[in-house]
Inverse folding.
């Protein structure tokens, strides 16, 4: 049986790409491929991630990209009752977990991470993040650790691109 793997992308993927290896001026193909893959129904993000991305300066390349190039329906809405129910389950686990310090719980509660895991779990998506698991962490709740706790697949940007068959070519300049 062939199953198609679809993805939901965390804000850190966009932020790290913009700030380093896929900067808009270096690899515009990355940003174009995200839109193309969305149009094919393979990649999405969430309304909560959109909020995080738009927290930057108005002249920031990433903010401009979201405003000018990303279709509104790329950012899926989190108000679905099934998603809210799973999110509630995740937040209860976080709040009741004695491993985590209060500041880690508070930070997690204001991030999109719990919503990503909830949405991915309800709709069978893989979470894409550049974070690495740190199950021993007390002062930071890592997205991959929450994914593991709730049986949600996760991978990094490069693994997603490989699964989707994306490659970027070199274009000769002057």
């Amino acid at each position: 049986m062939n199953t198609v793997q679809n993805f939901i992308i965390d804000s850190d993927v966009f932020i790290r790409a913009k700030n380093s290896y896929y900067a808009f001026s270096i690899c515009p193909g990355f940003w174009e491929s995200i839109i193309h893959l969305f149009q094919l129904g393979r990649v999405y993000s969430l309304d909560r991630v959109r909020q995080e991305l738009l927290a930057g300066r108005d002249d920031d390349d990433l903010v401009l990209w979201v405003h000018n190039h990303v279709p509104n329906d790329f950012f899926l809405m989190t108000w679905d009752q099934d998603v809210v129910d799973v999110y509630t389950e995740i937040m209860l686990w976080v709040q009741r977990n004695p491993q985590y310090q209060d500041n880690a719980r508070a930070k997690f509660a204001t991030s999109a991470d719990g919503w990503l895991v909830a949405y991915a779990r309800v709709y069978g998506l893989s979470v894409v993040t550049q974070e690495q698991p740190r199950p021993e962490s007390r002062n930071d709740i890592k997205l991959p650790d929450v994914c593991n706790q709730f049986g949600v697949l996760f991978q990094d940007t490069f693994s997603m691109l490989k699964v989707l068959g994306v490659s970027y070519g070199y274009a000769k300049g002057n």
About this structure: The mean pLDDT is 95.
